Amino acid sequence: MTPEPRIGVTLIGGFLGAGKTTLVNRLLRRDPEKKIAVLVNDFGAINIDADLIAGREGDAIRLTNGCLCCGIGDGLTRALITMLEQPVRPEHLLIEASGVAEPWRVAELLRAAPEFSPPLTIVVVDGMRIREHLADRHIGDLARSQIESARLLVVNKLDLLDPPSREDIIGRIGQTWPDIRAIGTEFGAIGPDILTALAPGSRFQASRTIPVAADRFTGLRFSTDLPFDADRLAAVLDTMPRRILRLKGILRIAGKAAPHSLQFIPGKWTLAPLAGRESPVVSHVVAIALRDDTDAAGFDQMMASAVRSAGDQRTSSRR
Fold it and tell me: Rounded to two decimals, what is the model's pTM?
């Protein structure tokens, strides 16, 4: 019996809020007939664009090409097995690694699985914040390790910088990491010729040993069955401590029929209506924060202060 061809893999890494999911959605649109499966980290909702979704099956999303989009909540190995057990074998696998993961560690695991080809590792960085990340004493070594895992480095969000600043950041990255191909993008838009010109493969090592994500970061969750007050929520987000590195959720807003998508990184947040969807009975907010400097009860109190009827709420948090 002729063995089945190995499944190609594109691994997308990068720090929280860099634009990884935007890039995943663009890649899914590029070749709609190709059977591409998707694995995403379990931080919050799976943000695959609505017109790429055919339906939902439990915790998985059925895509319009017949493949699945699954979370990696129970571990990457289990998620890979689930993919291989599906009736439709994918031609290609997209993996969006957690924003606090080192992509080379994920690539090493994939190298041990004979069903998959060595991954093409793409790392997305936020052009506005990459200097800040590299200089940060808490996350600088992680941001550096992520970059050094890359076969292709996508410097995203350049639309937020003026032309001299764009040239400067791309130039500095090229000087610091001359052996990594780096391209500047807006909204994760990369040309198909760039990917086809790159051979798969990854360094499968890091230049330094750093603590794993579980030792440095913690997950927080806030839930309420009462609506948020938009003005109060804005005030909370504007004063959110910088130890909260990423926050997202699907929320019920008082006086609004449509649910709202919340996205937050330090210094920037958006609250946008989700047209055509029913508002949730329970609003959920999930966050990633620095473990050593974060109090779950304090996070609860901040979010509770944005709820319309704070005196009658029923909330919960989880570390």
Answer: 0.73
